[in-house]
Amino acid sequence: MGERRAVSMADVARLANVSSQTVSRVANGETSVVESTRQTVLRAMEELGYRPNSAARALKRGAFRAIGVMTFTLSTTGNVRTLEGIVAAAAVHDYAVTLIPVNAPSQDAVRGAFTRAGELAVDAVVAIMETHLASDAPAPYPPGFKVVVADSDDAGDRHPVVDTDQAAGAASATDHLLDLGHRTVWHVAGPESSYAAQRRRDAWRARLVARGLQVPRVLHGDWTPESGYEIGLRLADEPSCTAVFAANDQMALGLLRAFHDRGLRVPEQVSVVGFDDVPEAASYIPPLTTVRQDFEQIGRLCVEQVLGQVRGTGPTTGTTLVPTQLVVRASSAAPGRTGARRPRRA
Amino acid sequence: MGERRAVSMADVARLANVSSQTVSRVANGETSVVESTRQTVLRAMEELGYRPNSAARALKRGAFRAIGVMTFTLSTTGNVRTLEGIVAAAAVHDYAVTLIPVNAPSQDAVRGAFTRAGELAVDAVVAIMETHLASDAPAPYPPGFKVVVADSDDAGDRHPVVDTDQAAGAASATDHLLDLGHRTVWHVAGPESSYAAQRRRDAWRARLVARGLQVPRVLHGDWTPESGYEIGLRLADEPSCTAVFAANDQMALGLLRAFHDRGLRVPEQVSVVGFDDVPEAASYIPPLTTVRQDFEQIGRLCVEQVLGQVRGTGPTTGTTLVPTQLVVRASSAAPGRTGARRPRRA
DNA sequence: TGAGCGTATGTTTGCGCAAACATCGGCCGT
DNA sequence: ACGGCCGATGTTTGCGCAAACATACGCTCA
Predict the structure, then answer these.
(1) Which DSSP helix (H) or strand (E) runs through B163?
(2) Measured between alpha carbons, how far is A253 from B32 in angstroms, rounded to an integer?
(3) Domains contained in chain A, CATH given
């Protein structure tokens, strides 16, 4: 830390009456130091409160033992939980994690962030890019960087990609509702700019098509509960709508409130399924059936992949998908006999 | 980044046909370089893709331009949003942010984290310590560290503390309910181990006492919606309970569900007020009246304080309180005429 | 016109650490 | 008994950068 005059190896060496190289050897746990010497040095370190200087170490070794994590925002559950996973996994490998904020979801901003990353004390970066950027432009990830992209897409042809198996998750939600007997499933999608939103929507549609069912028009929200609420109010006026799959839990929350406000009972008259499994989902009214993402796992895999690159082992492309898990709670049930909405309970 | 052979100032100097010192001057924006020389150097940098090596810089300058942020968890809204505020404020000052996880809420774990911090490339640390540690033990923050503590207490006698004005926030929630006409206010507190929980509870009690009202027994949750639900079920059996102040929004969410499950209408029969103003609070059923914390502000103040210490200006003790704002939504209303619970609506 | 000064640039140095290489003893085997 | 070898420790060096100091080249003004 910014102590005025940090204790250096030379200081320890002087006190212990050895060379600074021996101090270095002890500090790095090398074996070729006789036990008595080691003890002397250790005692001197203790006495002086010696702490290795990471700048000098990094300069010498050419590596920082740190990973940069690039995100647009920490406001989404997914990003935060992925970050948590990354921090935990990095700690296991004794790596530090440095945050690299990206001001805006634009190519330029990402490039700027990489410029900063290049100057920062990091050996590699994990980019949590839930949004796709002006997609025609060239790769925003500068060459020569060790990068793993989380929660994105870009087909993993340039850098490894780790992502939730969005398609399987969306399919499991859709199938769950269909298997309950619903004639079709409506979908409240995320914004078009989101890879994850696209893929959930596509998988939902694919399931309906595969089962020869009618595909209702897609309703696009922006991930917020408010957008879910707006869409819910409209959906309340669609008598044929008995099941809705929302692309995230927050929008599902908005749906629940809209249906509640319109006097529509969930799940008796409309079933709702979300995506994410936020910690509150079990406490929604009613508790929300949803698709759980394993963010911890994603974080772990990102770290492993990125450290693989740092070590020179490990692939530099390819996509890793993390499975989801359908969590069935009280917001989904079989539809009424008519196939349209169940009559409202007296 | 970990490129094999990074471009150094010497490389740029060679290409631009100047000394490496001149390159350094250009890189650092010093004025004493003639424009034509500057341009030559800039072009050479561009061509080579030069990027200053932060390790060497840090070694030379004795500073990293980085702040460490210490937290137990990123699972709480407050921590994450404080972190976001810190990252944003740090970016303004061109500081990087490194995460320092603390494995457990114990003195030892904190001490370990500080040891790591000492070896890490950070100039100072912001500790987000929402929990108090075995309080009789000596200061967990080693001397000589530049530390600011957020969301805690410890009276700011050893390090600066930045915190939400918990007392004022809790008082405003309590007064709001009393001013609506409730005879008293029940309180669902957070865990005893939390400073914030203690202070909210104490302020709530103080308001009741100041107004000469009966103080109901305190119910302790653990911040989770589930604990709020359990307590809500018990509260539903208390006919005298017409107003509840929950120490956070998640527990309030649990209360709402418990009351819903017991057929108690909010706010007609029971009013509920939360604390935090999470983004979903406006979409709860009904939308939650709550006390908004200004985490961005907290983050900003933490950074300013800690950079003040780094610069040697700025105080090394003292407490800064950030005001809260009561956000009135639909979950709070006047009680029934009887002073007990309003009759359930037909 | 030349002393004096300021400005642009170059040279030296060392930050703390750890590879690479050097040295110094003792211990082995024959 | 002595060459050779190995294990423990010391010495040198340079990572990339930027202070500190040195130099060189005008330009001003008496």
Answers:
(1) strand B161-164
(2) 60
(3) 9-52 (1.10.260.40), 66-163+295-321 (3.40.50.2300), 166-293 (3.40.50.2300)
Please give, rounded to a whole number of angstroms, the shortest distance from the CA of A64 to a CA of chain B: 8
What's the farthest any 2 CA atoms get from each other in chain B? Answer: 90
**How many alpha carbons lie under 13 Å from residue A333 in its C-beta half-sphere?**
14
- Burial class (CB within 10 angstroms; exposed 0-12, middle 13-18, buried 19+) of B239: exposed
**Residue range B38-59: average pLDDT?**
92
Number of Cβ within 10 Å of residue A140's Cβ equals 22
Is the C-alpha dihedral spanning A229, A233, A235, A240 positive or negative? positive
Contact A100, A113 (CB under 8 A): yes
CA A282 to chain centre: 21
Distance from CA of A71 to the nearest CA of B (A): 11
Tokens of A290: 């949803």
Compare A343 and A194 and report the one with higher pLDDT: A194
Q: What per-residue confidence (pLDDT) applies to A337?
A: 58
Cross-strand partners of B276: B292
* pLDDT for res A155: 59
- Predicted confidence (pLDDT) per residue in B256-309, tens digit: 999 999 999 999 999 999 999 999 999 999 999 999 999 999 999 999 999 998
pLDDT classification of B144: cutoffs 50, 70, 90: low
Q: Which nucleotides of D are covered by protein (CB under 7 A)?
A: 7-12, 14-20
For A9-43, the pLDDT digits (tens) are 999 999 999 999 999 999 998 888 899 999 999 99
Ranges A24-28, A114-118, B231-235: which has the least confidence: A114-118
Q: What is the mean pLDDT of chain A?
A: 89
So what's the pLDDT on residue B97? Answer: 95
* Helix, strand, coil share of chain A (percent; to 5): 40, 15, 45
Tell me whether residue B46 is exposed, middle or buried, using C-beta atoms within 10 angstroms of its C-beta: 0 to 12, 13 to 18, 19 or more. exposed
Q: Is the pLDDT of residue B140 over 80?
A: no
- CB contacts of A55 in chain B (<8 Å) are 55-56, 58-59, 64, 121
Across all residues in chain B, what is the average pLDDT? 89
Name the residues in A50-79 having a C-beta closer than 7 Å to nucleic acid strand C. 52-53, 56-57, 59-61
- Residue A316 in 3-state DSSP? coil
Q: If you compute the radius of gyration of chain A from its CA atoms, what whole number of angstroms results? A: 26
Q: What percent of chain A has pLDDT over 70?
A: 90
Measured distance CA(B7)–CA(B47) in Å, rounded: 11
B1:A145 CB<8 A? yes
The H-assigned helical ranges of A165-294 are: 166-179, 195-210, 225-235, 249-261
Query: What is the structure's pLDDT at A144?
Result: 67
Residue in B closest to A72 by C-alpha: B84
3-class secondary-structure state, position A272: strand
Chain A residues whose CB is inside 8 A of the B95 CB are none
A101, containing H or E segment? strand A96-101
